[in-house]
Write the structure tokens for this entry.
Amino acid sequence: MNKKGLAAVLVSTTLVFACNMQQTAFDKDLSFLKKYDSVVVLSSGSSKVVVSPRYQAKVFTSTAGDGSSFGWINYDVFTADPDPHMNAFGGENRIWLGPEGGPFSLFFPEGFVMDFSNWKIPAAFDTEPWETVSASDTAVELKKAEKKVVQEYNGEGAFDTIYEISNANTQIKIVAIQRNNEIKNENIIYLNDENNDTNFKNNEKNN
């Protein structure tokens, strides 16, 4: 083999090696998330789902095995100063509460004027981590127990989310997850017949 032929082989080999070393979009997102959280990666065949205990039980992203990353991750927010209203880290799927506005909104402190300056996502759904109850290759359960989960909610409550990945027996590359949410309200609400005010009593009987 002459020198030109050898050089061509070396260049070709180098290009193939470089291509193999390139990260897919999913690999890039997963590597980034691992810097900030001990994420749980569910897998079934070539399909994968990334679940985050640190960031409120979000599914940040998923892939059907072709390297695509289906979630949106707001990279800049992870290193930015906390926003007093909402920190949009991104994600693909999560548990959420509503309404966000109006007279029955959960995101305004009781008695405050309902304008944006007083609007805030509860910490349990914005900045605080959730606890991993159990995790396997195909399922994860996370929970959050709070004495004051939302602004107007003065009693105890618990939130529980379970994700399970499935992959149908098909030639089409797909990824699918099943999510089961449980919300437990441990307040007992009584109505005062005299003035129709609502009184909250935690786990007590009305005498």
The two ends are 98 Å apart (CA to CA).
